[in-house]
Specification:
The complex is a heterodimer of chains A (657) and B (273). Helix content of chain A is 40%, strand content 22%. Chain A contains 22 helices and 29 strands. Chain A has a five-stranded parallel beta sheet, with helices on both faces. Chain A is globular and about 80 Å long. In chain A, 47% of the residues are buried. In chain B, the strands form three sheets. A six-stranded mixed beta sheet of chain B has the order 8-9-10-5-11-12, with helices on both faces. Chain B has a four-stranded antiparallel beta sheet with strand order 4-3-6-7, with helices on one face. A two-stranded antiparallel ribbon of chain B has the order 1-2. The longest helix of chain B has 19 residues, at 138-156. The relative contact order of chain B is 0.17. The chains are: A alpha/beta (657), B alpha/beta (273). The A-B interface holds A 35-38, 147-148, 150-151, 262-263, 265-266, 269, 629 and B 13-15, 147-148, 151-152, 154-156, 158, 160-161, 163, 206, 210, 213-214, 217-218.
């Protein structure tokens, strides 16, 4: 296996990178967080001191080499310090999704057997106390925000700053241990353990070594020429591998500054204030932003609207070409510059994207219109394809070769091959060590030569050499007549309409394809307001005949577009219904990263699936829902099932030929 | 009821309540021939959450207005911090450290949340109009200090995302929260809340209850509140005064009040002579 045996200069662990940064450019900001209305910042030297104090405090509390330390909270410098401090003290940090329900948390906490948990606030403390019965290993909890926790029993509960204070006080006692443990760390030692979101079954603990993280960070930073002057906004879940790579791996390797928003609600304002140069967001974020822009433009004055439409049309025509450095006529360049002064510049500023030099989106397919919208404004938005098991990077789009329907070329140092059955395999320095306590899954996923199965089906495009992903390999099924069924491909086509939030397409072993759809409340709600359609609830809006008409138009348009693709023309959606509730992670219908769980959905809504295929016009159904506080209730509704027009296959074939 | 020594008592959840800070002695308030409050006495202790409940028209808001100095009772005395309070204008009462929120939100609609909350700091600012206009030296220093305090309250009530939003554009539940923020900004020794949960949905009520408990816990603020929602009152308060037709019909811990026959009658309704 082609792997560098050692990193250069002894930079073979994240704590070592921290020491380097604190020594070489200690006065440069490493972390910022907006608190009490002001951006507070910590330089690399200060961050190093904070982390050391915490690591000493952890040793003082009895952390042993190889212990697991769960970290549960939103993006705050404290939790990034906790990750590095845990590793410095010889332990293994395990960040968890902070919005996970108590039972989900209990499974992971029990699986890794964490002895310590560093959490944000009362909410997380309460959740862990709730499930503590079953967690025999959990010994101490450390919280950052003391609010509401005054009256709790503090024998096993500690405040973050107190632990740091105790660490500082006991410095002389533990500093040698800390140094020894830090020096023992090398490329092979475990850097972090991340739980996969578990699209199928129970979450798996992916163990990533320092080699994985540092090599992946190094090569991807080189690929995009990242420097220590980048600014990033850390707002994506800390339990997700991407955030670990961007906000710790690359940030420590390059030495750039990680900015943490004031609260999840202020993210947009904070984004604008920071103006990141390197930005990552899942397609959903870009979609929401674009939807908001479009909604607000609808309400703008006529002149503004006319200017916007005119210059956006120009941008769509020449913007991407200018960004990619292709030839564009002088006149168009002048017009584009004028558009930049009047529209694109102010718009990018409002979006907080004026300084973005490299932007990435991944996780899901992004709609071509959305993708082109951002690129036409001159924002270098690109796609990458990655996995937790790969330390993110499998393929990346190089500057100048960006398209919405491919995911780019293999990342530096990564080899990719396609199996005869279409499944994508890769290997490289970022490939994970193993799944924790799950040798069976490890063996199934990663073979002896280091090749890892992605579980996705795809192919390399002729000519460009770019990878195209069609669907999850296991979701790619066969229809009753034996032709390929690729639900995600169809779902993505549907989801590209702003009015459709989610789609679940059925068709495996069936004669025809049919779909469940979720409306997007923001977009459809706005449309309803504009068209004087009154509604009292999500459910009522979702069942409104005019909304159904509109959705039907979208489905039929998607069908026409599908009929152009000879491979998948038979996957057109014949029948659909609009669900009376939003698919939600709290109900187990989606993963925390908002991927639909097909099996759960088809089981839970079994009556609706049957209705899609038995020809009925409407169906009455009752569904259980879970509220945010964990209580359960149920909603019932009568749903209409619509038939959508499809392009007959013979004509489709003729058109394709 | 817990042991009521003059120095205070300890609540079921282990908070220690201090001595009496405010005492109403035989208050009677009349509007012409209408007797709104009839010979009512009760006290409020330091660090306590004290509720005043009663059916519509019982005189609860009038009572709150007597405490805040807006109404002058014809009979009776108000004792505050061990001294009898002379007749005062509401602003003088406010300067003594008694802040309030209103049943029907009284905020400046055109101003941002931040500016609204800053108005709560007025009693802590001393620089004159001219100095404020020039904004040098003390005026600037004062504003920075006061802004820092206001930001802590904004953080505490989790309204960072609407800091710069004009209040008029906010939904009802958030406006209520902003009003609470403004009252808190005054750093009151007693906080009067006039129906803090009126018109809220269950989730908003839960949030507001959490804020009230947390601020009592975190800052030790004494709180007197009027509320219709019995569930909320019983969960939140340490002691409850029950009023009906201007008279006090009950006073004690939530449990005591719940068992009081007069209270049950007033709420379930029996024929009045």
């Amino acid at each position: 296996m082609a792997q560098p045996s050692q990193a250069t200069d002894g930079m073979d662990s994240v704590p070592a990178l921290l020491q380097r940064n604190a020594t070489r450019f200690g006065g440069k900001p490493a972390y910022r967080e907006k608190e009490f209305g002001i951006w507070q910042s910590w330089t690399w030297a200060e961050a190093e001191a904070e982390i050391e104090a915490l690591a000493l405090g952890l040793l003082n509390l009895g952390v042993e080499t190889g212990d697991f330390v769960a970290i549960i909270g939103r993006n705050r410098p404290h939790f990034y310090w906790a990750m590095v401090a845990a590793q410095s003290a010889g332990a293994i940090p395990v960040p968890l999704y902070q919005d996970a329900a108590a039972e989900e948390m209990a499974y992971v906490m029990d699986h890794c057997g964490a002895r310590y948990a560093i959490v944000e606030d009362q909410e997380q403390v309460d959740k862990l106390i709730e499930v503590q019965e079953g967690l025999h290993q959990l010994e101490h909890m450390i919280y950052v925000d003391p609010r509401g926790l005054r009256k709790y029993d503090h024998s096993k509960l500690h405040r973050f700053i107190d632990i740091q204070q105790q660490g500082r006080a006991a410095r002389h006692e533990f500093i040698d241990t800390l140094k020894a443990r830090r020096e023992k760390l090398n490329y092979d030692s475990v850097c972090v353990m991340l739980y996969t979101s578990g699209t199928t079954g129970k979450p798996k603990g992916v163990v990533l070594s320092n080699r994985n993280i540092i090599e992946a960070s190094k090569s991807s930073a080189d690929f995009d020429h990242l420097s220590r002057d980048e600014e990033v906004l850390a707002y994506l879940p800390m339990a997700w591998v991407g955030d670990f790579i961007f906000s710790i791996g690359q940030a420590y390797w390059c030495g750039f500054c990680v900015n943490c928003p004031e609260s999840p609600e202020t993210m947009q304002t904070d984004l604008r204030e920071i103006g990141p140069t390197y930005y990552f967001a899942p397609p959903r974020v870009f979609e929401t932003q674009l939807t908001n822009v479009m909604i607000r433009m609808e309400d703008a004055t006529r002149l503004k609207k006319a200017l916007f439409d005119h210059f956006m049309a120009l941008a769509r025509r020449v913007g991407p070409a200018i960004l990619d450095g292709h030839a564009v006529s002088g006149m168009d360049r002048v017009r584009y510059a004028l558009g930049h002064a009047l529209i694109y510049g102010p718009l990018k500023d409002t979006l907080g994207l004026s300084r973005v030099r490299v932007g990435y989106t991944a996780g899901e397919a992004i709609g071509p219109e959305i993708f082109d919208f951002y690129r036409s404004l001159g924002i270098n938005l690109k796609q990458l394809y990655g996995q937790t098991e790969a330390s993110v990077f499998i393929t990346l789009q190089p500057d100048g070769e960006v398209r919405s329907d491919t995911v780019g070329v293999p990342a530096p140092g990564v080899e990719v091959r396609i199996d005869p059955n279409g499944e994508v395999y890769y290997r490289g320095p970022g490939v994970f060590e193993y799944y924790y306590k799950n040798a069976e899954s490890t063996a199934k996923t990663k073979d002896e030569d280091g090749w890892v199965a992605t579980g996705d089906a795809g192919f390399f495009e002729e000519g460009s050499g770019h990878l195209r992903i069609i669907d999850r390999a296991k979701d790619v099924g066969k229809m009753a007549d034996g032709r390929m069924f690729a639900p995600k491909y169809v779902e993505n086509k549907l989801k590209f309409y702003p009015n459709i939030l989610e789609a679940v397409v059925f068709g495996n072993d069936q004669e025809i394809c049919a779909a469940f759809l979720n409306i997007d409340l923001t977009a459809v709600g706005n449309w309803a307001e504009r068209n004087n359609i009154g509604y009292a609830s999500y459910q009522e809006l979702a069942g409104h005949p005019k909304v159904l008409d509109m959705i039907q138009d979208h489905v039929e348009e998607a069908n026409r577009s599908l009929s152009q693709d000879p491979m998948l023309a038979h996957c057109q959606v014949h029948r659909f219904l609009v669900l009376h509730k939003e698919l939600d992670a709290d109900d187990g219908e989606m993963t925390r990263t908002r991927k639909v769980r097909r099996n759960v959905i088809s089981e839970k809504f079994g009556d609706l699936v049957t209705a899609l295929y038995d020809g009925s016009r409407e169906i009455h159904t009752t569904t259980e829902v879970t509220y945010e506080d964990g209580r359960k209730g149920s909603i019932s509704a009568t749903l209409q099932i619509r038939d959508a027009a499809v392009v007959p296959l013979e004509t489709a074939k003729a058109a394709a030929e | 009821m817990n042991d009521m020594s003059p120095d205070g008592y300890t609540t079921e959840d282990g908070r220690s309540i201090g001595p009496v800070v405010m005492e109403m002695r035989n208050i009677t308030l009349r509007f012409g021939g209408v007797v709104a409050i009839k010979d009512i006495s009760f006290d409020i202790r330091e660090g306590e959450i004290r509720a005043i409940i009663g059916p519509n028209g019982a005189g609860k808001s009038s009572m709150l207005n007597v405490i805040s100095g807006f109404y002058k009772p014809q009979e009776g005395e108000v004792w505050y911090m061990g001294e009898k309070r002379p007749a005062m204008k509401p602003y003088q009462v406010a300067q003594q450290g008694i802040a309030r929120t209103f049943q029907n939100i009284a905020l400046f609609d055109g101003m941002s949340v931040l500016d609204n909350v800053m108005t709560g700091r007025i009693r802590h600012m001393s620089s004159g109009l001219f100095a404020q206009a020039i904004w040098k030296g003390r005026a600037e220093r004062e504003e920075v200090e006061n802004r820092a305090r206001v930001e802590r309250i904004i953080d505490f009530l989790e309204i960072q995302h609407i800091r710069k939003t004009p209040v008029g554009r906010l939904p009802y539940g958030l406006k209520k929260r902003v009003e609470l923020a403004r009252a808190l900004a005054a750093e009151p020794s007693i906080l009067l809340l006039d129906e803090p949960m009126a018109g809220m949905n269950v989730e908003e009520k839960e949030d507001m209850s959490r804020f009230i408990l947390d601020l009592n816990d975190e800052f030790g603020t004494t709180i007197a509140l009027i509320e219709h929602d019995m569930g909320v009152v019983m969960d939140l308060s340490d002691r409850v005064v029950v009023m009906d037709y201007g008279k006090k019909i009950g006073d004690g811990s939530p449990d005591e009040v719940r068992r009081n026959q007069d209270v049950i009658d007033a709420y379930l309704g029996v024929a009045h002579d």
